[in-house]
Design brief:
InterPro entries: DUF2807 (IPR021255). This protein has one helix and 17 strands. With about 240 residues, it is mainly beta.
Amino acid sequence: MQGTFVCDALNAALSTQSKLQFANADIGSLQVAASTRANVGGSLRFDDASITATSGATLSFDKATGIDFRFDGSTKARMSGTLVCEEITLTASNAVHIQLDTLSFGNMTASLTMNSTLQGAATSGEELTLNATFDSTVDLQGTCRSLMATASMRSHLRLLRLTCERAELSAMMSSAISCTAHESLSAQALQNSRITYAGNPPQKILNSGIGSTIRKQRAQQYARHHRYTTHPRTL
């Protein structure tokens, strides 16, 4: 869809090898179902949007606003571009793998469950909220002002290369979180969990239960972690 596109509602279903490309679109309500190797992208504005993607979907946006991504069931999806909006919601369940290619946004809430993964590079202008449970993993680099992260049921949040000003962390039930914070840190580790942090936040509130640990990353380990980085998986 090229040129100026204005409508109150749009419901689209993309099949294999399909592509939906917007240019200066203004849509009230957008619902897109993208299946294997489908592509959704472009420049668009909308009040309410939901993107449902199955295996191999590519989601690339330029200055899109207000979006809710939902992935379910052995999905591999790639997201990139700039999303200018107050809130992005990303939900992944049942062995979903999501790759962020230098995604920029305002606020984002990401919830992962049942062996799902989120990795790549991201820049948040304000708040980033991460929830991972049941063997899920988040591995992100980039920046955000405020980080709220929760890991439970053997989940891992690897965020040492994600630099934030303020961080609130909670690890439970054999889970682990690592992050970098510079202004304030509130951390709680319970039920055989561990939290590792880098940076020198002057304000710290640390609470660890029996069998759990909260510790500061050693300088040598921190430098090595930033020097040798793993390459994200390709789709």
